[in-house]
Amino acid sequence: MVTTVILIVIFISYIGLGIPDSILGSAWPAIYTELGVDVSNVSLVSFIISVGTIISSFMSEKIVNRFKTAPVTVLSTALTVTALLGFSFSKNMLWLCLFAIPQGIGAGSIDVALNNYVAKHYSAAHMNFLHCSYGIGVALSPYIMSLFLKNGMKWQNGYRAMFFIQLAILIILVLSLPLWKRADNTEYEKSSVKKVSVKFSVLFQNPAVRIQWLAFIGSCAIESVCLVWGSTYLVNAKGLSPEYGARIITFYFIGLALGRFVSGIAVKRLSCETVIYIGQALTLAAIIILFVFQNTIAAVIGLFLVGFGNGPFFPNMTQLTVKYFDEKISQAVIGTQMGFAYTAILFTPIIFGWVSDRLGIICFPVYLIVCFFVMLASTLILRKRVKK
To answer: For residues 276 and 243, is the Cβ–Cβ distance under 8 A?
Structure first.
């Protein structure tokens, strides 16, 4: 019973992890217009967020081993609550950049801690449902933001609404702490496998680890470019209004959540590898739709299928980490995976911003297909090496 309640709490906390990730991209068309800054300045804010996330991801192994999963989850969520409140009162780029710091730091450690916890103690289906919860979070915030923009309210009001939702999640996490303490006395924290601290240099020497990092980079590049630039692509390339663009990009996040939910059901019959390959086929088809057809309906369908197809990669590849590598180092490997995933989240929107300034945002589908083939090639090479 305790483990079931903890799993529900973990799902709720992962909804909270997704809420701050998508709100910036959906609100940016309104933000840069109001503040009078260049559209590419979103890359600066996302850069700061990602740097904080990368740092906390690479430090997560030591942090979680010292403080355990539950306290790290509470503290990380508290940081994102602070960030959302700060964004809601921001009047210029300086304040946006300032509150991007706690948002980034808060995201990294909780991501690693919960992924490793679920990978060790629950099934592949639970891992997919965990990331489905993230999809719910990233779908929720742009939809709510679009409602505020549609009704003529400022983007700050949308951030404030998400602050209150995130605050409610934080309260739930704090109230759940006694349950985590009870679970500490069970097999869930008293694993028979001795935890070891693994240096980054040791992991880097493992070719399979490096290939898996590259696969995460490709998948997360697709996700981050859609997350940060998807709404702007709809506004600038398809001629939609900012509020309508924020609403349409919600279909991408719905696809992301639904893909992970369906994946959670599918892994009961299919292997994680098979689910990943099916998702990659759908992702390729979706990008081709975006590339070939230029109307709004095709953009909606394409973005939905990109989320639906690419969504299952992250949870299933994370679940495979415990299978592919020694359990004693799984948390260290997952920590570096998250670090490189967020490195992709950091740099790929910036690179796309630079490319779009020169070639136009119409090159959005071309950029996605390059990222896709990085992910596909790495996945195939990793599978071949693991078999050997």
So the answer is: no
Both tokens of 19, joined, read 């809420």
Would you give the DSSP letter of residue 122? S
CB 122 within 8 A of CB 5: no
**Is 315 in a helix, a strand, or coil?**
helix
Only one residue has tokens 């998807």, namely 230
Angular region, 195: left φ>0, alpha ψ -120 to 50, beta rest? beta
Rg (CA), the chain: 20
CB crowding 46-72: b at 16 or more within 10 Å, else e: bbbbbbbbbbbbbbbbebbeeebbbbb
DSSP assignment letter at 151: T
Q: For residue 41, what is the DSSP state?
A: G
DSSP conformation class of 37? -
Residues 6+ apart with CB under 8 A from 246: 26, 27, 29, 30, 142, 145, 146, 149, 231
Cβ atoms 211, 378 nearer than 8 A = yes
Does residue 212 contact residue 382 with C-beta atoms inside 8 Å? Answer: yes
Owner of token pair 């696969």: 215
Q: Write out the chain's pLDDT in tens, 388 residues.
A: 677 888 888 889 888 888 887 788 778 888 888 888 887 787 788 788 878 888 887 777 677 777 777 888 888 889 999 999 999 898 888 999 999 999 888 877 777 778 777 877 777 788 888 888 887 887 788 788 888 887 778 888 889 999 999 999 999 999 988 887 776 655 444 444 455 566 777 777 888 888 999 999 999 999 888 877 887 887 777 777 776 776 777 788 788 888 988 998 998 888 889 999 999 999 999 999 888 877 778 888 888 999 999 989 988 888 888 777 766 666 677 778 877 887 887 788 878 888 888 888 778 888 899 999 999 999 999 888 877 6
